[in-house]
Amino acid sequence: xxxxxxxxxxxxxxxxxxxxxxxxxxxxxxxxxxxxxxxxxxxxxxxxxxxxxxxxxxxxxxxxxxxxxxxxxxxxxxxxxxxxxxxxxxxxxxxxxxxxxxxxxxxxxxxxxxxxxxxxxxxxxxxxxxxxxxxxxxxxxxxxxxxxxxxxxxxxxxxxxxxxxxxxxxxxxxxxxxxxxxxxxxxxxxxxxxxxxxxxxxxxxxxxxxxxxxxxxxxxxxxxxxxxxxxxxxxxxxxxxxxxxxxxxxxxxxxxxxxxxxxxxxxxxxxxxxxxxxxxxxxxxxxxxxxxxxxxxxxxxxxxxxxxxxxxxxxxxxxxxxxxxxxxxxxxxxxxxxxxxxxxxxxxxxxxxxxxxxxxxxxxxxxxxxxxxxxxxxxxxxxxxxxxxxxxxxxxxxxxxxxxxxxxxxxxxxxxxxxxxxxxxxxxxxxxxxxxxxxxxxxxxxxxxxxxxxxxxxxxxxxxxxxxxxxxxxxxxxxxxxxxxxxxxxxxxxxxxxxxxxxxxxxxxxxxxxxxxxxxxxxxxxxxxxxxxxxxxxxxxxxxxxxxxxxxxxxxxxxxxxxxxxxxxxxxxxxxxxxxxxxxxxxxxxxxxxxxxxxxxxxxxxxxxxxxxxxxxxxxxxxxxxxxxxxxxxxxxxxxxxxxxxxxxxxxxxxxxxxxxxxxxxxxxxxxxxxxxxxxxxxxxxxxxxxxxxxxxxxxxxxxxxxxxxxxxxxxxxxxxxxxxxxxxxxxxxxxxxxxxxxxxxxxxxxxxxxxxxxxxxxxxxxxxxxxxxxxxxxxxxxxxxxxxxxxxxxxxxxxxxxxxxxxxxxxxxxxxxxxxxxxxxxxxxxxxxxxxxxxxxxxxxxxxxxxxxxxxxxxxxxxxxxxxxxxxxxxxxxxxxxxxxxxxxxxxxxxxxxxxxxxxxxxxxxxxxxxxxxxxxxxxxxxxxxxxxxxxxxxxxxxxxxxxxxxxxxxxxxxxxxxxxxxxxxxxxxxxxxxxxxxxxxxxxxxxxxxxxxxxxxxxxxxxxxxxxxxxxxxxxxxxxxxxxxxxxxxxxxxxxxxxxxxxxxxxxxxxxxxxxxxxxxxxxxxxxxxxxxxxxxxxxxxxxxxxxxxxxxxxxxxxxxxxxxxxxxxxxxxxxxxxxxxxxxxxxxxxxxxxxxxxxxxxxxxxxxxxxxxxxxxxxxxxxxxxxxxxxxxxxxxxxxxxxxxxxxxxxxxxxxxxxxxxxxxxxxxxxxxxxxxxxxxxxxxxxxxxxxxxxxxxxxxxxxxxxxxxxxxxxxxxxxxxxxxxxxxxxxxxxxxxxxxxxxxxxxxxxxxxxxxxxxxxxxxxxxxxxxxxxxxxxxxxxxxxxxxxxxxxxxxxxxxxxxxxxxxxxxxxxxxxxxxxxxxxxxxxxxxxxxxxxxxxxxxxxxxxxxxxxxxxxxxxxxxxxxxxxxxxxxxxxxxxxxxxxxxxxxxxxxxxxxxxxxxxxxxxxxxxxxxxxxxxxxxxxxxxxxxxxxxxxxxxxxxxxxxxxxxxxxxxxxxxxxxxxxxxxxxxxxxxxxxxxxxxxxxxxxxxxxxxxxxxxxxxxxxxxxxxxxxxxxxxxxxxxxxxxxxxxxxxxxxxxxxxxxxxxxxxxxxxxxxxxxxxxxxxxxxxxxxxxxxxxxxxxxxxxxxxxxxxxxxxxxxxxxxx
Length: 1657
Description:
Blueprint (H helix, E strand, L loop, with lengths): L1 E2 L4 E4 L6 H13 L16 H8 L9 E8 L8 E7 L3 E8 L6 E4 L2 E4 L2 E5 L1 H17 L13 E8 L10 H4 L2 E3 H5 L4 H8 L12 H9 L3 E3 L3 E2 L2 E9 L5 E8 L6 E7 L12 H21 L1 H4 L19 E5 L5 E2 H8 L5 H20 L2 E2 L8 E3 L5 E3 L6 E2 L9 H4 L17 H17 L6 H5 L1 H7 L5 H8 L6 H11 L18 E2 L3 H4 L8 E2 L3 E6 L2 E7 L8 H20 L7 E7 L4 E7 L3 E3 L7 H20 L12 E4 L5 E3 L27 H17 L11 H12 L9 H12 L5 E6 L6 E3 L6 E7 L6 E8 L1 E9 L4 E5 L3 E3 L4 H6 L2 E3 L2 E6 L6 H7 L3 H12 L11 H14 L12 H11 L6 E3 L14 E4 L16 E6 L5 E7 L8 E5 L13 E6 H18 L8 H4 L9 E2 L6 H5 L3 E2 L5 E2 L3 H12 ...
Parallel strand pairs: 2-3, 5-9, 9-10, 22-26, 31-39, 50-55, 50-56, 51-53, 51-54, 52-53, 54-55, 57-58, 59-63, 59-64, 60-61, 60-62, 62-63
Antiparallel strand pairs: 1-2, 3-4, 3-11, 4-5, 6-7, 7-8, 12-13, 13-14, 14-15, 15-16, 17-19, 18-21, 19-20, 23-24, 24-25, 25-27, 26-27, 28-29, 29-30, 32-39, 33-34, 33-38, 34-35, 35-36, 35-37, 40-45, 41-44, 42-43, 42-45, 43-44, 46-49, 47-48
Helix pairs in contact: 11-13, 11-17, 11-35, 13-16, 20-21, 20-23, 22-23, 28-29, 28-43, 29-42, 33-34, 35-37, 35-40, 37-38, 37-39, 37-40, 47-51, 47-53, 48-50
């Protein structure tokens, strides 16, 4: 902070830009009575003296100013101030805007400069600032000299540029003025006329001390620097001449998005250019022009450069100009990268990174640009091995020229060692290579670059024995003309690693036969096909195909390799001999005719295109085609070019035959057809093309319009629409389509059970409501053995009597007619069925059909059994009031206790019920009228409903929400997308409406789900169904999860020695010794030796991660396990475990190939960025692009050609021919462009590309094309020239050209967005990691793999289908979790649907017990006892906290390991002096009770105030806060506030955000619910219990799991805030009652303390 010498203005350093500071200086000068010599008069004397002497001309002064600050407790722009002036009578807020040239206008609350949107009105923003400041001054009213009156706060937007703002609305103009007009307020007359101050207010300049306290204390901080939607976080670079500064900045809109802010200060640049806007614009635009040229010449290189995101206008380049540069995710500057990751990268990784770096500059030099400023500041690297270049301001670029004399001033300075380079004779490119050599040395040796590191670098390189030292020395001494030569030298010197595989011709010998195919299989007349490459003909009733001139001895390796692959496919097909392919008789290589042949049966039939089928046969034929293609894919083969012309139907039974498979092509291009392939034909697999073709051909056969509706085949058309809409899973398999076919083929009228009943006059039918007929079972008055069963649905309710002894229905009551189903009926029903019931008049009554239908219904019989277990209820109607009151109070606690009835459901039944009911748990509505078309548009639809709670409230505004119908069979149909912006309470608006939505009527139910949830559900459903159908790798895995399982665990007889365990002894960063304790060792041995399902229970802080890391390392190193899958529910747990495993492997010298899967890089920790799947692919692509010439040149011996010749041809193919083909395709696209605007836009692109190619052909290859010649003619000319130069014949060149095309195909494939290497990594890497659901993405292909060991962390929190994704592929499974902590999370709606599905929807059944985790179900079984272990030593919690958790939740078995507790808490607030404290609010009476007026969740204002009060006390304890802050590790909070209810979290967060806290304190505090806290820990935990009421009802605080998690997060201190009276007596058997009892019994000496809460609430 600094003071200006004129008007006394305090300026905070930071967020003000140069032009703002200049304006503030002018204001300071105008509002001062400066002396002629420029010196201010001395301060001192009375206020009267100052008023008269300092600015005696008008008696208003002194004034004081505060500039460039923000209030730390305010959010956003409302708390940031450019300038605040305290005058003698009021306070003026000044918002400065340096806008120039274009006029300023307003539209509503948005301002525009010309056509440019400048955002929200500055007047409106400043008005908010006025409100903020006025409220702060209001609190200080009694301290002002003019007591009792808050000073007036005026505000102005002061325009310091030349923009015309006269067109603004009058209301805006009142608060907008030019700087010139604002300075006129220095005149007393002008000031008085404008503000008309009250005489009593003219004493405000006596209160500067009050303002100093407000503005200069911890309340304020420097204003944030904000440019273009980004806020500066920290300064990361300063130009040595202070020409510019660079800041790391975060986006104000997109959380987690970072950018680079560059702020120019041209005042520090000498010369004329820095003075004029035109000159400054030339300097700023220089880098953009270089980058633009790079973009036209090499798009890939351009994508590896930092680009400016700021739109450029020459007139706006002021002396302090700011621009925003894109910063690729995870990239940091060179030195920071080397410091963070250099040592953790192995030598191969560092070498690859070096090669990629040099290759980027080789590309740059290839387009004749030298960087000339290569050093730490201009090189950006990421742990995922990506490189970006920046700071091209002083680049050497001949077409554009250079910045001449300004280069030295603008350049930061390339890294150099002058004595190692002769500067006089070197080119700019050699200077780049010099710098690159130095950079490469530092990268390869993992050193930061600095003057010190360069001092002795010459001797280091000379004395090095590394193979690359000599190459780097030549680079540094200027021996290479450019970076490309440097790269060549490095590649030549690189030791041969893996031998580049060459083809072994002997593998084809087994297929060679000494025959001529035309003599062996003579033709019978005309050839079906006869070309130079292929013959197809009939021979003795069989079909012969022959490919000519292939497979000969000595033919080129690439071609023969492809011949071998084709023959091996034939091996597989011949072995399987599928019925849908013509039978294969013979195949091989005919050596005498130099051909490959293939002989099959001839199909006597017609093609699909020419067939004439009866309607009755069509679905059957389609089903045969579907089965054929599905089987073909199942054996690992695809067709790839399926269409109606190559599918045959025999004439007898309409059997399907696929022909033209397999087919061989001389070139590498796959045969494809566009009509029967998805739109992104080049981005999809051959399997997807096959599936698409099956669906399209089926549509054509059935007469269904593609992507249309069908009344005859609605299920089929719906299935096809689902595939088209499903971006992620569409056309990945045929499951959805097959199900639709089956439904279509067997569709019949809905099943109806008919019964006869006496005493009714007319027939009644009760239909299921969206597939659900609700059933309730209860006692009847006809005796104990007769039950009353009520069926409710659309049409009414029907009550029937069921005789338990006879096991049948014996009578019924007349049905009650109702048009809709009351929601209470659904809630009270115990289960549901899907059939309709038709009740007809008849005598005698006949209910046998109903009895038969429910005879084997497990849910029905379970409901009956549960009814028998329930004791009869007492009729309380005649009891005294005293007894009623006692019973009511008891019910408040007892009814919420443990369930009366224990129900065991088989795992199979539970899993199937979970799958069947998941969609029903989604938010939904019941229409209270038919769907309506809105009047304003035809493309939308309104769904009316009535509800108090918004069913769309759970969705974010950015979610893509689908509306879904569920039919009676449980099949889903998407009927449209929810238009969230237009939807209102009681009205859902749909767009992208499907025709089936228009028929919705009153009472129909519509469900809502995001596309992401649908994708997740499909992955999970498929995996769980695979386990249920026993199709997983472990067919009997389902049985091992059953609570009744008593199978013997499989023994594996693996020995582990003490020496093995000792390898895992290590020290942590604090010097503490870490090793596997005795329990961990016993668990380790047991879990290795018993399975195949093994379970590890890990209570809080017991070292689960350490255990997993050691376990995986042992599997890899000692047991040579090659394939391990590690997953968890959360990214955090996966990252932590995988990093720890890698550290073990690194420390112990164990090789381990890891891949981390995630759909976004931000979820991957820094320690795993290098093994992030997309990063591995990127590295492979970049290395291929850098080394392609060397890869193909290595085949020169096999081809018998010069390696340099091969390199030149391949380089021409990749760098020139590729561009020519791109131009040709653009020219061809003109034929299809009909829009004139599109033509205009396309023309300049084509012209520029044509010019670039022609220039390249001339400058690089010396070929001058005339204007009349097509650029494509250059191909043949260039190839002819290269062949002549190296004496190569055209037929020899043909092979090389084919090889070059393969390289180009590979390059294109690796560069494509849809390139799928993930499936390869999932198969080939030793350790595969990801989240439970994320790992199930279809392109990863987990379901197609087999893993030796699957380890699932946090398994007790995962629902069945999440576990199934990983378990389906496992030979052995290890589940790690703790079933005594948080259970799997099911929504209330899902629980209710499950209860009905299982027949346990009864108030006496605790559904949470039934839905306990699969971990718990397996762990507690007889099998589980053999194959499970528990860790019982915790290292997280201080002993008193650990003992409390152990006694309450683990039967006292959890013991405490040694851990030092920091000795800092004696200086803490009294509530934190003891390890465990209960802050008891019971003495505050009703004030301590919770409230429930905000919906379903409760909150407690009293407890919230106690939390905030304690946080304030902590923030004010300077020494304690300092000591506590010293314990902070990374970004983890130190103080955790855990709320047992979500609404309480919202309340505390709201109060916390409204408070005034010192800078940095907020980062120490985390406020969240208990459900979000498992797996986390903090030094201090403050637990808000929230629940407290007169009835002392425990609510879900009766559940031990959540209380366990809440209590066990604390490391040093646990503070419980709540009403202790709740738990003393009434709920003493509940977990918190046990906590209270234990603390009371142990007392203060043992570390447990009770403190009464003070009434701050």
